[in-house]
alpha-L-fucosidase
Amino acid sequence: MKKILYLGLLSALSVNAQKTAPPAPYGALPTPQQVQWQQMEYYMFIHFGPNTFTNKEWGHGDEDPKVFNPSRLDARQWAKTAKAAGMKAIIITAKHHDGFCLWPSKFSKHTVRESAWKNGQGDVLRELSAACKEYGLKFGVYLSPWDRNHPAYGTPEYNQIFANTLDEVLSSYGDVFEQWFDGANGEGPNGKRHEYDWDLFRGVVFKHQPKAIIFSDIGPGCRWMGNESGIAGETNWSTLNTDGFGMGSAAPSTQVLNTGNENGKYWIPAEVDVSIRPGWFYSPDTDDRVKTLTHLMKIYYSSVGRNGNLLLNVPVSREGLIHPNDSTRLMEFRKTVDASFKTNLALGKTVTASTVRGKDKQFAAGNLLDGNYDTYWTTDDAVRQASFVVDLGKPTEINRVVLQEYIPLGQRVKSFKVEAWNGNRFETIDQQTTIGYKRILVFPTLKTAKVRVTILDANACPVLSSVGIYKAPELLSNPEIARSKQGLVTITSEVADPVIRYTTDGTEPTLASARYSAPFNYAKGGTIKAKAFIKNGAEASETIPASFDLAPANWSVVGDESSRNSASRAIDSNPGTVWQTARQEGSRKHPHELVVNLGESLNLKGFTYTPRQDGQSGGTIYQYSFYVSENGTYWKPVLENRSFANIKNNPVKQEVAFPAPQTAKFIKLVALSSVNENEHWASAAEVGVIVR
Ligand code: FUL
């Protein structure tokens, strides 16, 4: 009897003396580099090259290298701007699809050496890598394997040439934190396509930069998240199945890239690449179209707020500088993010969990608030549902909740909810799926004294590093400007009792500008800038610009029923409706055409094509020809066999200038191919002309 008691005492003692073991890791795990990478959260992309000077998104590779001639290039200004914006790194397009190298590569004859800049003595990578060092930023490089210039492209030799090119870059400019591989793979100089040797390329990266994160559609370091509009999946697993998949068209569907695979075999987290302007390269045409602060904040919440890193592109201008419109917006963005997450209202408050692993203090809920990512709250192994309550002490206004999983042990949580105490009981604020490294919930401001977070399901016991509760300043919502087919402009605002002021001369609206009260005629077009004011101007929205060309008031579509197929939707001034032609049967997939009678003879400088905006890409035109006519019978070709560069991944309005102005009463857009192979139809949201 005595002996048994003694043994019992001994085992109880040893339990106390021995700490509870931490949970075993679950599923695919990040490398230490991937954890560090995830903690960077936000960094800059720079698209720069001949396209900057030629107004193109995809150069053809036949551009004269002399066009590359920035007048005041200053990489320190880029780095200084990125640093001030709160970014942690810069990734630059060392070589885009046009093949032009921003450094004097030994393996190409299409480089800065052949350009007019610094008499061919310059090296953008040298200047930028030094500037990044000076400002404490990491440095990364984008290199496109697709090369529309290199004569060897499409031959087996090209793989080794590209490997040499990589070798040169990765051994010459110090540490490279991320190697960005573009999956786009189109034709080369003679319409050639190429089979890339990815194993060879990855080998070169790791030879010189063993710690680098390799970005591609399928990693291995991080993955493309399936669109270029900045929106990661609401469900976003950092794990992905890539066996049997490849890059570009061989990649998993964009839908899978957007959400990852639950229990995916490899840890390949999402990177959200998006441009601050409509296109990736600088164009003076987009100086007025830098994304609004409201739009950037939405992107922040759908990238960093959804377990993704944000790679925000800020294209360098023809001067070789970041344009003031972009840097001003970047500073506003930083200020707003900082203000939103300035004070964690949970800090110093009590947090109580429904259960704690082994009842051991080292895993207690207090770890959620200690500011240390490496300590966490967790539960016993068998637990899949658990909650904790943050007691704010008194009713407090809140509108953001931030949660973080401890990813070195894997991504575990499958669903969770957040509730607020209404004085009697808890009411659900939001219920969501994954958390991952960081999840931010955004909801309208409410007042509560207690917040409860409940993990509803997980693949293994939940392991959470932190919780944050915030009251972010509310941005006044922006006015929206729309114009009807007839040319009537309507300006709407969601704000209660706003005073909307607008200008039509390009200036900033002030309290003294024209007041919007009813739709007005603006059929001839121009630029409208609108701003909503409340409280006699004490608070205001952002200024929203909208540019219009001639309204299609008197236009009509021409042709038989099959080619017309709701063609009027392409000229109804409503980008929400889609014109889609009937599918061509048999082997003949194209052409499909849209013929428009403009109602009068006009002096045309170009045309516009807005692809469908409904999230689908079916029928979006890739190659096209454009014709004009005075009588609708004799057609003059103006642009033949052209293509809308990068329109599949970035389906924004295309504005195409004619080589010379044309006088015409009829226009014809002929679709020669769709962005998706084997597609037998064409579509458009809007087609317009440029007369202004
Ligand atoms: C895409 C490219 O085709 C675009 O031009 C841009 O560089 C974007 C970041 O990636 O695949």
